[in-house]
Design brief:
73 residues, mainly alpha, elongated
C-alpha cells in the first residue's frame, strides 16, 4: 500500500461515532427549543399581567360587544 492510496481513500466513521454526533446535535436543538419556550412563556406572562392591571381585556371585550350590538340593531 503506497502512502498516496491512504490519503486518497475517504475515512469512514463507525456507526457509533455518526450517531454520537447526531445525538449531540439533537440535544442542542432540544435545549434551544426549551429556551425559546421559556422566553415565550415569560413574554406571555408579562403581557397577561399588563392586560389585567390596565383593564385592557374588559375594554376590548366591551368594544367588541358594542360593535356587534350596533350591527344587530
Amino acid at each position: 500500500m503506497s502512502p498516496l492510496s491512504a490519503i486518497s481513500r475517504p475515512r469512514r466513521l463507525s456507526p457509533d461515532r455518526r450517531l454520537g454526533r447526531r445525538a449531540t446535535e439533537a440535544g442542542q436543538a432540544t435545549a434551544e427549543y426549551a429556551l425559546v419556550l421559556l422566553g415565550v412563556a415569560l413574554i406571555a406572562v408579562l403581557v397577561l399581567d399588563w392586560a389585567r392591571n390596565t383593564n385592557m381585556v374588559s375594554r376590548l371585550l366591551n368594544a367588541v360587544f358594542r360593535s356587534i350590538s350596533k350591527l344587530i340593531t
